[in-house]
């Protein structure tokens, strides 16, 4: 389906962000009035100036007193009571200029807080503003109707016009160009091929396309994000509550110091001076600004945190429990290798299996079909398809009966070796058979995310000292994943209740974060201090109970969130400590008579502006990861896309090595060697050379130095040496026969190249391609 007619795509007006002057009006009027009083004073009209300053003081005192009384009525005792006492004191001692300065100070602090909150919550508001309300649904007769979003059901066929927001989660029916920045935080446009899943909330940046809904609106990704956004904007930052609790000690200390100065000297003016410099704007305003700024930044990184309390806890966390499936791994099986019977063709076996599995809803069937499409195989529509749960699918393809699933009967010798190899590697096996017996086996695995190992390292650097992987998978598979990503401990074959018990145990020792993506993870997420759900791929139940949701399917954004949370909390504490420390020093000086109310008011104004500006630093900085320039991203995309072809050559290399090891006298042995050597020379070596010349120099900046790629360059040299070694062996046998005494050396080269090249590809994907903030490359 292409773009729909113009009448199906309503024109969207361009919204411009306008300044709401009402938000700045109180500060503007107070400042102008205070300046007017200064002008009258300089003009010699001192009585008029005093009246203007007194009016400014009253203008600030009335709303502040009302707000304080409301707090007291709700049995909340906050430090803002000091500001009210200071304003009252300046009126009593007729220090109207000091009162006016305090009024402007309070107004400035509130205006700066409002500015920071508006800037910090801009991304959250954008989510709410972009929430779709209607969808274009195709009717059975081919027409298009505009329906309310709540009427869309899974299975409906929708049309997404240019500029439209994708209304529900679904599968695109043709290639689509999307702007996913609102959900993922990334500005680059993304192209989704036909059949790929698309999350609701992204924007169509190209021509119109068809969408097959897989979820209704309430269960879609965007609805969960919007719910979290509404909750996040409705909560109060934790440091504000901390300030109110701190008032229990700070307010009595301030009143005691002010009363002592008055009693010892008999000068009420000193008490007022103490109250003036004690106005606690650093704690009331600067710390919430830092926390809310942190909320905004993690939202832009694709992590939506429910409230400031969760962000503060994330910044203090020391223990991380992380589920394996869908979190450290991709969460869906992927066909990694096709092993065929002697004389069978690899592509034909995969084509037969995928053709039969086209109609099956099983997750393994989707993996086979996806692998066949990636290899460009043309599938045939099967007939007489039957599926036996737990055993497999049977059908006819091109007139031949094909069975896909478990292997019936005693396996031949080659099949037994495949089974043993799969068990050792922790992979699942799908057998493809016909009436004569097994044709081949397709090995599937849930691959480790390329960014998982780098993310674990960054989480340790951010301060998480204990990382534990929990999974319901088998012990062997769990240990392999744990060794790959580098966690401290692994708990395998873990039930949902056991996950909850382990979270409770760890939470008793330290502040604990739990990360998961499935319905079975929801109880553990709810039990942790901070539960983080993989919202881009996870179940709604997990996202609903989580304190934070990763809206993009990248684990490294969790490391971003932890680093930003620690940075924002550090700035918040720093602002409060420095600001209140300076205020206490000024209070002592004022009590000793060295700081009159007017001077104290100006000094406190300076302290407040200083700490609030410092708190605004939380809007940027704190991330250890370096940004990747756009031109380097393009190179990463290009070479990541070429890895599929290299892996195909690698599979042929392994098959050829096995053929040489088991049947060196077979007539097809040397031709297979020559073919795989040709592909190594024509496809793999040019790929490695281009990386050496273009990609590795471009990575010097993001990685910190040229030395960061030196080990990978050394692997390039070893790959080239082994290819030349295989070529040298072939050059000695123009007649096409292999001598027995040469087999050990040839096999060492073949299997050595297989191991080095596999390791090389994995290292590139983990250390280099994971730097790309776009979608994680396939493994």
From TrEMBL:
GO terms for molecular function: ATP binding; ATP hydrolysis activity; ATPase-coupled monoatomic cation transmembrane transporter activity; cadmium ion transmembrane transporter activity; metal ion binding. Its main location: membrane. Residues 131-230 form the P-type ATPase A domain. It is a multi-pass membrane protein. Gene3D superfamilies: Calcium-transporting ATPase, cytoplasmic domain N (3.40.1110.10), Calcium-transporting ATPase, cytoplasmic transduction domain A (2.70.150.10), HAD superfamily/HAD-like (3.40.50.1000), nmb1532 protein domain like (1.20.120.520). Residues 637-770 form the Hemerythrin-like domain. The keyword Metal-binding applies. Pfam families: E1-E2_ATPase (PF00122), Hemerythrin (PF01814), Hydrolase (PF00702). InterPro entries: ATPase_P-typ_cyto_dom_N, ATPase_P-typ_P_site, ATPase_P-typ_TM_dom_sf, ATPase_P-typ_transduc_dom_A_sf, ATPase_P-type_domA, Cation_Transport_ATPase_IB, HAD-like_sf, HAD_sf. One of its GO terms (cellular component) is plasma membrane. NCBIfam families: ATPase-IB_hvy, ATPase_P-type. Belongs to the cation transport ATPase (P-type) (TC 3.A.3) family. Type IB subfamily. This is Heavy metal translocating P-type ATPase. It comes from Micromonospora inaquosa.
